[in-house]
Write a structure and sequence with these properties.
mainly beta; four-stranded antiparallel beta sheet; 1 helix; 7 strands; globular
Amino acid sequence: MNNNYFRVTAYHKQANVSMIIDSNGYFDALWKLSAFLVKKGFDILEVGKSDTFSNGNIPPAEISTENLIMRACKMGKPEYTENNKVLDVHGRYYSPNKR
């Protein structure tokens, strides 16, 4: 993976929808991806660079400088399992903090 692989889990309160979204080259800084989502009305729940999260059952995305990659979405808030170490959005899960 390159240095610009980022993953964010976000929740939109008004729409009551959550998502896991990856950027693999679209943004050059994690804060830019987070700011983009905040401007769209999302609350940021988890953020990470490729070396700070485990993929879980979500395979790494291909490099794209033109697209963000929606990895999972669901109505409602995401669920935390296994003592709040694993985040699940509609059956797609990962560990936000690599241990």
